[in-house]
């Protein structure tokens, strides 16, 4: 059943994000989305076995960085176990509360933790955006069928998904 579910979910494209918390800690997450508009809430799922889980399970604030289609290397870095995620190859700074801000991410949502919900081997981390940084006309990095993908925009319409290396 687990393999069947995993294979079925590979057919659902998901935006690739990096979630950060004070420490600094961070990890690549593709289970992110809007929860509510009234009040504004976003949510993501964090595995309890993740190296960032201890920090994210207690933090008052976290940031969600939506990645650009060209940021596959950054997504891979934050997905690797025991990687130096905040080393010299990552452009970042801490905000006033020590929350890491990835400088090259086209979208950043700085969130106050509103709620945590335990479900199986994950927690849902629900956040209330307090600050939003967004660049116009960016191509999002997506994950689909086990590969990175992007959506090509042609004029006012959307084109077909195209594979990106990996």
TrEMBL record:
Keyword Nucleotide-binding appears in the UniProt entry:
no
Give coiled-coil spans as residue ranges. Answer: none
InterPro entries on file: Flavin_Rdtase-like_dom (IPR002563), NADH-dep_flavin_reductase (IPR050268), Split_barrel_FMN-bd (IPR012349)
- List residues of the Flavin reductase like domain: 9-150
Q: Which residues cross the membrane?
A: none
Q: Where is the signal peptide?
A: none
SUPFAM superfamilies recorded: FMN-binding split barrel
Q: Does the keyword Oxidoreductase apply?
A: yes
| Keywords for the protein's UniProt record, in alphabetical order | Oxidoreductase
Q: What is this protein called?
A: Flavin reductase (DIM6/NTAB) family NADH-FMN oxidoreductase RutF
Task: List the source organism.
Answer: Kibdelosporangium banguiense
